[in-house]
Amino acid sequence: MPIASGSSAAVVPDDDLMDTCLGVAAEIVGNSPFGVWMTKEVMWSNLEIGSLRAGIDLENRTQIMASLTEDSKEAMASFLGRRQVKWSHR
What we know:
The chain is an all-alpha fold. The protein has helices at about 15-30, 35-45, 50-65, 70-80. The protein is built from four helices and no strands.
């Protein structure tokens, strides 16, 4: 049973577990390396953050930083050009 895009959890039969995990890993790898890194950083930071407002502020700053990368511009160009993204890790 594949995990729907955007899902956070799924129950799958034992025999399908490895294929499901590899599918989720492929989805993660298909995203911006900087975006994946920052998502993980913000998730860990939010475990110790003092308030919802502080968590939202941290996420907002991270979104702004991500939007200023070369990879962000490439992602927009690839979307408009209907082609695969070529991540440069910049």
